[in-house]
Design goal:
This protein is an alpha+beta fold. The chain folds into three domains: 44 residues, no CATH class; 45 residues, no CATH class; 205 residues, no CATH class. 40% of the residues lie in helices and 14% in strands. The protein has 14 helices and 14 strands. A hairpin with a 6-residue loop joins strand 1 and strand 2. Helix 5 packs antiparallel against helix 11, helix 6 packs antiparallel against helix 12 and helix 12 crosses helix 13.
């Protein structure tokens, strides 16, 4: 094969590698160089498209970018190949556009097709539109249906069925996930916070009170300066300063809880839980219960409302005297649209008293059992079914 050839269009002598192969030619190469061949094909294509009344982009000459570089046609810039996303459908394995341009193109596409990126994501994840979410928020009076304290902003859905439930605030939405949507754990946490559960009774029997430790103990304990076996560890001083307990106290408490969470009794106890107002220690909780109670603001009313919410017994549709319908999620009932965002406190307090005395989750318990007895039965049955054994002697995190 020849080493070089003259192109019949541009008249330039170029290397044979600049020509396509052509069996019909004596030398086995095309009559025109690759650049001229591309221009001829482009002119023919655009002529046919114009005859059909279609508009085409301007012809762009083939680029010869340096090794490891790539040209982005949107920003018209040559960038490093790392600046481009991956695309397995392309021969090069990279996207046609750099990452910033790709993000812009994607956003413009979503806005053109779906109105906005948020509307696209709502339809993709939950099957609802942005307008439907706005209507749901208006039905709720703009308030989170669980805590009745913060504005409703986050779509909550059932992770089993995928169905959208209601619009919640950020903290309530996250707390449901920490409790894994288990209403019995939330009710146990409500009793735990009010110091009327099994954990408080155990401490009452052991130390003479439902809580122990706290900053006051550091100031009043005459043995504070005594050197003990555990004082060589920094954790000892941290526990004493923050919770008013020692390493020995923490290990003793975890043993008394048989290594399990003092709230749900179903998971390993890992974190020391304390009253943020007094600093006294209530128990050692698992990660989910400890974090979930914190996100719910350590508030029993919110926990009981959350339990009923998960069970589908909190938010109901009622018929008004004029024949229309509206939402109802408090006792006593009130029209959410008639209450301003900062006016929910009296309704919330009244609802808390109602649920504390008669939690709806246990209205179907039957058999004359108390809520605590029902919970104990469920916890034992669940532990047996899972084959999970207690974890005695585990270290509690501070």
């Amino acid at each position: 094969m020849i080493a070089a050839k003259k192109c019949k269009d541009c008249g330039k002598v170029k290397a044979a590698t600049e020509f396509w192969k052509r069996k019909a030619s004596p030398d086995g190469l095309a009559l025109y160089c690759r650049d001229c061949f591309a221009q001829r094909n482009s002119a023919s294509y655009r002529k046919k498209q114009a005859a059909l009344g279609k508009k085409t982009k301007d012809f762009r000459r083939r680029r010869d970018d340096p090794e490891g570089m790539k040209y982005c046609p949107r920003c018209e810039t040559v960038k490093a190949i790392e600046e481009f996303g991956s695309n397995r459908s392309k021969r090069s394995g990279n996207s046609s556009y750099c990452k910033p341009c790709w993000n812009t193109i994607t956003r413009e596409h979503r806005e053109r097709r779906h109105g906005s990126s948020r509307n696209y994501l709502l339809k993709l994840r939950y099957g609802v539109t942005e307008e439907e979410v706005r209507q749901m928020i208006a039905q709720q009076g703009g308030i989170c249906v669980i805590c009745l304290r913060a504005a409703a902003k986050h779509v909550d859905h059932d992770h089993f069925s995928g169905a959208v439930r209601r619009i919640l605030c950020f903290k309530c939405n996250g707390a449901l996930g920490q409790f894994e949507d288990e209403p019995e754990r939330m009710l146990l946490a409500a009793d735990y916070l009010e110091l009327r559960g099994s954990q408080a009774r155990m401490l009452e029997n052991e130390v003479g009170g439902p809580v122990f430790g706290g900053p006051d103990r550091v100031r009043t304990d005459p043995r504070w300066r005594e050197r003990r076996a555990s004082t060589s560890r920094p954790r000892h001083y941290h526990l004493r300063q923050k919770y008013g307990i020692t390493d020995e106290d923490a290990d003793w408490l975890l043993r008394r809880q048989v290594g399990l969470c003092g709230v749900c009794s179903d998971r390993p106890g890992e974190h020391i839980d304390h009253d943020h107002r007094t600093g006294a220690v209530r128990g050692i909780a698992c990660t989910g219960c400890n974090t979930g109670m914190g996100q719910f603001g350590d508030d029993p009313t919110t926990l009981r409302r959350a339990a009923d919410y998960v069970m589908g017994e909190l938010v109901k549709m009622v018929t008004t005297p004029d024949g229309t319908t509206r939402l109802s999620f408090t006792h006593p009932d009130v029209d959410p649209a008639s209450v301003p965002l900062d006016g929910w406190k009296p309704y919330r307090d009244a609802d808390g008293e109602h649920r504390r005395g008669d939690p709806s989750l246990w209205s179907r318990a039957g058999e004359g059992l108390t809520p605590l007895e029902v919970l104990v039965r469920e916890i034992v049955a669940r532990s047996r079914a899972s084959g999970r054994a207690p974890v005695p002697g585990g270290a509690a995190r501070s």
